[in-house]
Specification:
The protein is mainly alpha-helical and about 60 residues long. The protein is about 85% helix and about 0% strand. Helix 1 runs antiparallel to helix 2. This is Exodeoxyribonuclease VII small subunit.
Length: about 60
C-alpha cells in the first residue's frame, strides 16, 4: 500500500475519513481506521517533503 502514488494514497485517505465518520460509534473499528489513516498520512507527508526538496533544487538552478 505504501508504494502507491501520491494521488492513490490521497484518495485512500479520503475514503478512510469517510469510513471513520460512518463507524464513529464503533471504537474498535475507528481505531483500526485511524491507524491505517495515520500510516498513509505519514507517507503523504514524506512525499510532500520530497516534492518540496525537488522544487527547491529546481529553483536554485
Amino acid at each position: 500500500m505504501m508504494d502507491n502514488s501520491f494521488e492513490e494514497n490521497y484518495k485512500k485517505m479520503e475514503s478512510l475519513l469517510e469510513d471513520l465518520e460512518k463507524n464513529k460509534d464503533n471504537l474498535d473499528k475507528s481505531l483500526e481506521i485511524y491507524k491505517e489513516a495515520k500510516e498513509i498520512y505519514n507517507t503523504l507527508n514524506e512525499k510532500i517533503n520530497d516534492y518540496k526538496a525537488k522544487v527547491e533544487v529546481i529553483n536554485n538552478d
